[in-house]
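Z., the sequence and structure:
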Amino acid sequence: MILKYLGQGLSSAERPSIQFNYLGDFDDATGSTFQYTTENMGDPVSKDNQRTDILLDVSGMTVNGEMTINIRYSDKVFDESTVQKVLSSYQAHLEQMIITDDEQKVILTPSDLTYNGLSFQTIQEITKNNEVEDIYELSPMQQGLYYHWLLDPKGSTYFMQTSYRMKSQSLDPSKVEKAFGKLLNRYTILRTSFDNRFGEVPLQIVHPQANVDFNYQVIESKDSLENDLEMIRNNDIIRGFALNNPTQLRLILVELPDNAYEFIWSYHHIIMDGWCLSILINDFSAILDSLQQEVELSLPEPQKYSSYLKWLGKIDKNSSSQYWENYLKGVSAPTLIPFEKSIKGEKPHFATEKFSIEDNELKEINQLCQQLGITLNTYVQAAWSYLLSSYNASEEIIFGAVVSGRPPDIEGIENMVGLFINTIPVRITVNKDDTPRSLLKKLHQDSVQNTGNHFNSLAEIQSLSPLGKDLISNIVIFENYVKNEKESFENVKVFDQSNYDFTLAIEPNENSLNIDFEYNTSVYSSAITALASHLRNTLCHFKTFVDTPLSEFGYLSISEREILLKEFNNTEESYDSTSTIISLFEKQTVLTPEATALVYEDTQLTYQELNAQACDLAFQLQTAYGIKKGDHVGVMIDRSEKQIVSILGILKSGGVYVPVDVNLPESRKSVMADNLQLIITESFYFFDLDFYSGDSLAIDVELTGEGSEDFESTALDGGDIAYIIYTSGSTGEPKGVLNTHEGILNTMLFQKNFFKVSQCNNIAQFSSFSFDASISEIFMTLLSGKTLHILSDAVRKDSHAFEEYVDKYSIDLVTLPPAFFSLLHIERLQKLQGLITAGEAAIVGKAKEFLKYGTFYNAYGPTETSICASVYKIDKGYDLELNTIPIGKPISNTEVYILDSNKHLVPIGVSGELYIAGSGLARGYLNREDLTSEKFVANPFVEGTKMYRTGDLGRWLPDGNIEYLGRIDHQVKI
């Protein structure tokens, strides 16, 4: 009636066409003045007052325990059969309600539940076998955890376990169980099951009572105490959780000798985060105390988890989504943790490394945080950002950070139990010019800006980036939990396992900052353990050098530097420094004068014959053309024995050997010719020397045989230039590399021994003479008294012809580019004792196949380092289990440094640029002082020496081998 007078518009509002009127209960009233009668009394409502717009008029009453329902209906709209069906259905529902009421069971309807997306029938199906208090959706974080559980219901991902020890002389296990039961009934989330069979989304179902999963055990022996406890913990982890059960929390009490007790709490992360466990243990302790002391306990009524979910459902996620989309714009690659294994295991196995910062160091860090107005969490994240930037050689860093997810808008949120935490991406740019102070301020400002956007699930945020699930490779957790002030816990142990292969956890205490990282040992090598010292050093450096540019920072420990500089580069090998490759060749000629030195098609030369022809050429060079020590002599002839004669003759005369490939463009040959005093060629190439205006010698017609017996080679020093190989830079402009006699001698002496040339007879010369690999093939053979087989172009370019040659001439050792190696049928190379690949990444499958028959070598070395700087050896018969074949360890008298962009050493497992130093280092580039200064830089580790900057990326493996990772500039070497 009140509404009638509230406004003019209400009087004309649309009136309902269905009317219901329950007249009441009329019990047997014997002895009373009035009684109900069933006799006809006429129309209950005057015709003048009857509404003509009522289509269905339902009325009912109960008389003497019997209910009667009448329906008056418009026969213009409904027929009798329809009304009869309505009556029958109504009767059936009333009878079901009466039966249910007799069973004293509460019937839930959609309006009774937090989640109202279920039909009445579905609710009855859910409650058919279980009592239900409430039903609601999962939070975004819970959805992610539930998805992972569905993928592996028996796995330990997101299984959480915390154990601690305490002393008690009066602990009653039955009261512990009772206290645990009271705790379960106190919080709705502890009486919750999870199910995806009803509705369109997974649901969590709250039950009025929880199953108390409590177990009491006794360990009597001290001898096996820790092992027995570990077994109990592990068995509990293996047991896992079935999320469709009404509780996901259990407690094991283990009685130990000397009045000690171990409490083992296990729960699935889907019900709560670590903050909550602190709340529960505090409550549990209070409940247990009250039971043991037999006193009443009054704890404040806890807030239900559903109130958080209701709040979550009301917030505007669209604006947060827009924030995260803008935040992630431009992120093109994830930030990775280094130290990955070449071959990863199939099943995850986790290990943990820990360290602490205490006393004055922690005090100074806290003082700096207060001074800058930042949190300890921000401080650690900044140090982690710097470390990730250094590891990845990238200014753009992104990682995951776990936030509390507890909105301050909800009253009592800090004491609510449930899963609130969320993982959000943290993106930061770490510039070289940044100092710890500026980086800390940037990270703090970023944290303040994203505070209101912590409630989108990580899956939602990841969907806004092209990287998707690969956006984050590691997460940082700051465990700032409520402490139990009454109890003194000992031997605290925690097990928790996420689906991330790397998790960094920070736990601040009053007197220490405890940091541990959990990593998947199936993914990461043992080198990752060094990360603990890296982060610790960085945290301490930040407070000490707060205004120092990060580019000046280092994070390696002294022991790591010792390993990288000395252990991995312990390559010193002494040899006669007065020797040269020519003097050693001449000695070999004396030892094996009649042995076959080389073979080319039908031509064979003994060592004596080869030496005689070389002496003849050297004599001609000096007497007829005036070649003296240090003069550059080009060689442009076809593949034949004459090439070897030319090289030896030039070196004997004191000249510098410069190969000129016949097939090179005129413009490139012209650049090379500008610095030549002479070209050795063949008579039929005289008309192809337009690019050159100097003297030329036709080796096929000008050798006279004079001076071959008494010719004495020019005395040479190790620092004299032996040969010049032209390579191309990123612009394609040729640059001549000045390689010394010391460098080539060092390489040859190493390779003779390492490749076991003494055990060979026939060695193939496959490489083009314009490549320095040919120098290696020639001299490791001729300095060993073995036979060099110069392969014709026809054999070099035809894999089948090559296989036939190897078989026919019993070739023992060959150096091949991987591209050609990939074309070969390995079973046809059974006579090879050893196979060397170089110049490109080795092919694992082919190498593994070859190991059935011989030893495989993977060699690496820029021209600027005298052919070879490192080699990896795999012995015959070895079962190769690598995804990539390393480039090995430094050769004799060679140092390899792997450095970051600031020329700081990078640790084992971290990629950096390869720098090479030692005896094999070239003098530089011919007439290119600018480029020489750029590429041959001062060696900061050995005063007064140089190192070559390769432009190649690599990383140290824990065993001291190097894994090649490609070019920094992705250029292809020609």
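The CA atoms of residues 247 and 691 lie 88 Å apart. The longest helix spans residues 80-102.

Let me know what you think.
H.
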